[in-house]
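Please describe our next protein:
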Amino acid sequence: MVELKSLQILRAVAAISVVYFHIGSGPYAPIPTPIATFGSFGVDIFFVISGFVMAMVIANGHSARSFAISRLTRIVPLYWILTTCLLLLAAAKPELLSSTTANLLNYLKSLCFIPYFKENGSLTPMLAVGWTLNYEMFFYLCVWISLLVVRRFYIQTTISLIILCFVFASIATQNAVVSSFFGNTQIFEFLFGLLLYKVYGLGQSSNHSPFIPMVIAIAAYIFMAYAEMSRFSDLKIVIYGIPSVALVYSLLHLENVLTDGNQKIVSTLTTIGDASYATYLSQFFVVEGVRRILHLKWNFIDPYSILGAAFIIMAALSVGHLLYKYIDKPISSFLKREFLAVKQTRPLVSLHDSSG
């Protein structure tokens, strides 16, 4: 499968945006925060990209089995490792955490991607940023079922499954977890990504001027930043979902420019994009470590200054890169090879496998 530099750069942008957002949020952040706080919409960008990439993966010929293996080996290992680290931290140093306790049941729910209300009342797992992974796994499940049932119409089937869950959430109001989780309109951003792949495939050979896509991309990002700072609407699917689609679509049309452009800059950004998942998951440890230890305990740096925010972002990117290079990528690659090799070495086991 061809790796698109535009998507990797967008992942870098989304990861940096979310890290920056978390610098200005949290129980110890001053109100009002000295620095402008925005960037949570990086999650919306990630969701649209995820839908697009899933469509691209399936178009590349992945079976239901290989799709499931590739997604699980990509998402699970690092998330389980960092969630376990957080459990140990909660047990050893509970004073460093404001809303996480060493609760084994919550730990198991987190590992199994089962939504639940945390100690502080939020619908988040033990590692708070993992709430997006609960949605990712739900989306992957819908796609996997669609591939099993009717591969030819997997997009229509996936859309139907997600809409059914959303409608069910509006009916099952007696279950707060179900209604809150499936009633989140952000689940449709995955579908935006699926459909975007189809639209992009119709005109990807066009060679228009890069000026218009660049202007649209910048305008979409600025609009989302302004919308978040001004908080003029809570309808995320419109305020962040649609601009995220415009941003992703515009960057895709800059692929040729990025390929022919300054390769040092492009290479740096794509490297950050490669490690964006590791950066996203590990940011909590970096942001809270700087805030609670370097700032509150040692008074070493002010995280709410421009210099402090830049320091945290660089630290988060560095930690994410190291985790990706030495833990995330090696483990994921090893597991993927091992699980995919099972079918080749034991053909009889997969006689009734849907990917056959």
About this structure: The radius of gyration is 21 Å. The mean pLDDT is 90. Residues 5-350 form one domain.
